[in-house]
C-alpha cells in the first residue's frame, strides 16, 4: 500500500490496529483522505509529525484513538496547509485547544468533542476564515463565550459553506457521515462545558448558523433578543444553564426551527401560545418552575380561554345559589333545582365543546373521554364508533414513542385501533392563531375531497381545546425517506419504474385538488415528505387539507406564507400570495428529486440548491450528468431526461410559463416504464440536438 504513490483515500476505521503509525504512510504524497477512527493507536505527537509528509491531506480523522494522552501544545504544521477537516474527538485528551490549529488556513471543520480539554476558547479562533463547523462539546472548558467566536466569517455569512472532501465509497460504517458533505451544516456546538457569563448579544451576527448548542454550561442572564436574527437556525439548545427572564416572543420568527430546548433554567412568564414555539413538546420547557403554558402542568392564568372563564363563572353561580339555599328558603332552592335540570338537559355536543380540559393528556382520567366520539364527515358513511379513550389507549396517552412526524400545525402519532387497523392521528396545536378556522377549513376540505391518490381521511375528534384528525396509516412512510434517508447498502432501492409510478400517482392527486374538487385547493406545501407511500408504493398526497381553500371566483388566496425551504416558489418572496402555479413549482422540485436523487437544499458546503444546479447543468448541455448516478446505465435515461425537461418547465422563474397540472399528468402518463428499456427512444434536448439512445446493460 505504501508504494501506491497515486492513492488518494484510505479508510482504516473500526479495526483493531494498535501501536504507532508507520512512517511509510508519509510516502503517499497524493493522499487526500485518511480515516483511522476507532482503533487503538498511540503517540499522537509522532502521528501528526509523520502525516505532515502527506502534503495533499484535506481530511484527517483520528478520533477514538490516543486514549488519555495529552494534546500536543506545539507542533510543526508545515504540510497541513491543505487540511480542511480535522477530527480528534472521543480520545479523552487532556490539555488545551492548541495554538497550532490557528496555522491551518484552510480548516473548515474541527471536531474536538468528548475529551478533557481545559482552559478557554482562544481568541485566535476568529482567524480561521473558513471554519464553519466547530464541535467542542463535552470537555472541561471554562471562561466566557469569547467575542472572537462572534466574528467568525463563515458563520456570519449566510452563503453556502465551502465543499469538503467526499470519499466515493459507501458502507454501513457509523463514521460514514464524515464522507457525506450533506451531513454538515454550519454548526457551533459548545455544550457540556463550564462556560460562564451571558450569551453575547453579538451572537445575532452569526446569520449562517443552522445549529447552536450552548447546553449544560453555567451561563446566566437572559436569552438575548439577537438570537431571533438567526433565521437559518434549525436547532437551538440552551438547556441546563441559569438563564432568567422571559422567552423572547420573536423566537417564533425562526420558521425553520425543528429542535428546541430551554429546559432546566430559571425562565419565567408564559410560553408563546401561537407560532413555532407552541409546536414543541413539554420536555423542551421542563425544569423552569416559573414558566407556564398550555403544554406544562403550570398553566398561565392570563392564558385562560373565554370558555374556561365561563365555566368558572358558572361554578361561582352554582356556589352562590347553594349559599342562598343554605340561608334562604324554598324560592332559592327552586331556582337551583331548575338550574340543575337545565344543565342536565344540555346536549352532548354542547358538553363536548364546553369541556374544561386544557390538555388532551389530562382527559385519560376524565370520564367524558368515553363519550367524545370520533366524528365522520357527512357523506363518508358509517364507521365503527370510536371514542377519545380508544385513541388514548392506542397511542399510550399520546406517548412520544408513537410520534411519526411533526410540523408547524402539530405532531402526528401512529395508532393501532381495537379492530387491528392502523391510523395516523394528527394532533393539532389548538392554541395557534386562527386554529378554529384552520380546523374547520380542513374538515370541510377533507369531507369533499376523495381521490385514489389523496391520503384517506377517517374522521376527527374535538375534546375541549384539542383537535384530532385521523388518517389512514401509510406503511412505507414518505418519498423523502426513501430518496434521502436510506444510506445503508442493505436498504431497498427505488428503481426508475417505481419512481415514475410515484410521480404519476402524486401528479394525479395534485390534479384532483387543483381541478377536481370544489372549491379548488392550493396545497401550499408540496414536498417529498408530503407524498406518502402505502405497502404497494402507491403515492398519496398528504396535508392538502391544511391549506386555505380557493373559491371559484378567486384566482389566489392571500394568507400567511406556508412552505418548506427549497420548495418555495421565488415569487412568494414578493408578496403573501399562494397560487396553483406556486404548487407547480414545488411539484417540479419533487420531480427533480426523483430524477437526480438529490435534496432540494444541500446543507453541505458549497453545494447549490437543486433548482439552480439543474438549470446551470442544462445550460451547459450536461443533462445526463444531472441524472441520479445510481440509475445511470439502467436503460431508462431517455425517460428520465423527459421527466427532467417537464420538471424544468415547472420550476421556471416565470409562473406564467409553468404548465398546469393536467398537462403534467398527461405527459407523465405517456411514459411507460415497462417499455423504457427496449427499442430506440429519441428525445429532443438542448438546442434541438438529439440525445444518443443508450442500450440497456446486459
TrEMBL record:
Organism, scientific name: Aegilops tauschii subsp. strangulata
Protein name per UniProt: non-specific serine/threonine protein kinase
InterPro entries for this protein: Kinase-like_dom_sf, Leu-rich_rpt, Leu-rich_rpt_typical-subtyp, LRR_dom_sf, Plant_LRR-RLKs, Prot_kinase_dom, Protein_kinase_ATP_BS, Ser-Thr/Tyr_kinase_cat_dom
UniProt KW keywords: ATP-binding, Cell membrane, Glycoprotein, Kinase, Leucine-rich repeat, Membrane, Nucleotide-binding, Receptor, Repeat, Serine/threonine-protein kinase, Transferase, Transmembrane, Transmembrane helix
Binding residues for ATP: 427
Example GO molecular function: receptor serine/threonine kinase binding
EC top class named in words: transferase
Keyword tRNA processing appears in the UniProt entry: no
Amino acid at each position: 500500500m505504501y508504494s501506491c504513490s497515486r492513492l488518494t483515500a484510505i479508510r482504516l476505521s473500526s479495526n483493531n490496529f494498535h501501536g504507532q503509525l508507520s512512517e511509510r504512510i508519509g510516502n503517499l504524497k497524493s493522499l487526500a483522505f485518511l480515516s483511522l477512527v476507532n482503533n487503538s493507536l498511540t503517540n499522537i505527537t509522532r502521528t501528526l509529525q509523520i502525516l505532515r509528509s502527506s502534503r495533499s491531506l484535506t481530511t484527517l480523522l483520528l478520533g477514538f484513538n490516543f486514549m488519555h494522552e495529552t494534546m500536543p501544545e506545539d507542533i510543526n504544521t508545515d504540510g497541513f496547509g491543505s487540511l480542511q477537516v480535522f477530527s480528534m474527538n472521543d480520545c479523552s485528551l487532556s490539555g488545551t485547544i492548541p495554538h497550532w490549529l490557528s496555522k491551518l488556513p484552510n480548516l473548515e471543520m474541527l471536531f474536538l468533542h468528548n475529551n478533557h480539554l481545559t482552559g478557554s476558547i482562544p481568541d485566535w479562533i476568529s482567524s480561521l476564515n473558513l471554519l464553519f463547523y466547530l464541535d467542542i462539546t463535552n470537555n472541561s472548558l471554562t471562561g466566557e463565550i469569547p467575542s472572537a467566536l462572534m466574528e467568525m466569517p463563515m458563520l456570519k455569512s449566510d452563503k453556502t459553506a465551502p465543499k469538503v472532501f467526499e470519499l466515493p465509497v459507501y458502507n454501513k460504517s457509523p463514521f460514514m457521515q464524515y464522507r457525506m458533505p450533506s451531513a454538515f451544516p454550519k454548526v457551533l456546538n459548545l455544550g457540556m462545558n463550564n462556560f460562564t457569563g451571558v450569551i453575547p448579544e453579538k451572537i445575532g451576527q452569526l446569520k449562517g448558523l443552522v445549529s447552536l448548542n450552548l447546553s449544560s454550561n453555567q451561563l446566566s442572564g437572559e436569552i438575548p433578543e439577537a438570537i431571533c436574527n438567526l433565521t437559518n437556525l434549525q436547532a437551538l439548545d440552551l438547556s441546563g444553564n441559569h438563564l432568567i427572564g422571559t422567552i423572547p416572543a420573536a423566537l417564533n420568527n425562526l420558521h425553520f426551527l425543528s429542535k428546541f430546548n430551554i429546559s432546566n433554567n430559571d425562565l419565567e412568564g408564559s410560553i408563546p401560545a401561537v407560532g413555532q414555539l407552541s409546536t414543541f413538546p413539554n420536555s423542551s420547557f421542563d425544569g423552569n418552575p416559573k414558566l407556564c403554558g398550555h403544554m406544562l402542568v403550570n398553566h398561565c392564568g392570563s392564558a385562560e380561554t373565554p370558555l374556561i372563564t365561563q365555566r368558572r363563572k358558572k361554578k361561582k353561580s352554582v356556589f352562590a345559589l347553594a349559599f342562598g339555599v343554605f340561608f334562604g328558603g324554598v324560592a332559592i332552592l327552586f331556582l337551583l333545582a331548575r338550574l340543575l335540570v337545565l344543565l342536565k338537559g344540555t346536549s352532548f355536543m354542547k358538553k363536548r365543546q364546553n369541556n374544561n380540559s386544557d390538555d388532551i393528556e389530562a382527559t385519560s382520567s376524565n370520564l367524558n373521554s368515553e363519550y367524545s366520539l370520533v366524528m365522520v364527515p357527512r357523506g363518508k358513511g358509517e364507521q365503527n364508533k370510536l371514542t377519545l379513550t380508544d385513541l388514548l389507549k392506542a397511542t399510550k396517552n399520546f406517548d412520544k414513542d408513537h410520534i411519526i412526524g411533526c410540523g408547524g400545525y402539530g405532531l402526528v402519532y401512529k395508532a393501532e385501533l381495537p379492530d387491528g387497523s392502523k391510523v395516523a392521528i394528527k394532533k393539532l396545536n389548538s392554541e395557534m392563531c386562527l386554529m378554529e378556522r384552520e380546523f374547520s377549513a380542513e374538515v370541510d376540505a377533507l369531507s369533499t375531497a376523495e381521490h385514489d391518490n389523496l391520503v384517506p381521511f377517517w374522521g376527527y375528534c374535538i375534546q375541549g381545546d384539542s383537535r384530532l384528525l385521523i388518517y389512514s396509516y401509510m406503511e412505507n412512510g414518505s418519498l423523502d425517506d426513501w430518496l434521502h434517508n436510506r444510506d445503508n447498502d442493505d436498504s431497498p432501492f427505488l428503481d426508475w419504474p417505481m419512481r415514475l409510478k410515484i410521480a404519476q400517482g402524486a401528479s394525479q392527486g395534485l390534479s384532483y385538488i387543483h381541478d377536481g374538487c370544489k372549491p379548488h385547493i392550493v396545497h401550499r406545501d408540496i414536498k417529498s415528505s408530503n407524498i406518502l407511500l402505502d405497502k404497494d408504493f402507491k403515492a398519496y398526497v398528504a396535508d392538502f387539507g391544511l391549506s386555505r381553500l380557493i373559491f371559484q371566483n378567486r384566482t389566489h388566496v392571500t394568507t400567511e406564507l406556508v412552505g418548506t425551504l427549497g420548495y418555495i416558489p421565488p415569487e412568494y418572496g414578493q408578496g403573501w400570495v399562494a397560487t396553483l402555479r406556486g404548487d407547480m413549482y414545488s411539484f417540479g422540485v419533487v420531480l427533480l428529486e426523483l430524477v437526480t436523487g438529490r435534496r432540494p437544499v444541500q446543507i453541505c458546503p458549497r453545494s447549490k440548491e437543486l433548482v439552480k444546479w439543474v438549470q446551470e447543468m442544462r445550460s451547459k448541455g450536461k443533462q445526463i450528468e444531472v441524472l441520479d448516478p445510481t440509475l445511470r446505465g439502467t436503460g431508462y435515461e431517455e425517460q428520465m431526461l423527459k421527466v427532467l425537461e417537464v420538471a424544468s418547465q415547472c420550476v421556471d422563474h416565470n409562473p406564467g410559463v409553468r404548465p398546469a397540472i393536467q398537462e403534467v399528468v398527461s405527459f407523465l402518463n405517456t411514459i411507460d416504464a415497462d417499455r423504457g428499456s427496449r427499442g430506440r427512444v429519441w428525445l429532443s434536448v438542448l438546442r434541438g440536438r438529439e440525445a444518443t439512445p443508450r442500450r440497456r446493460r446486459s
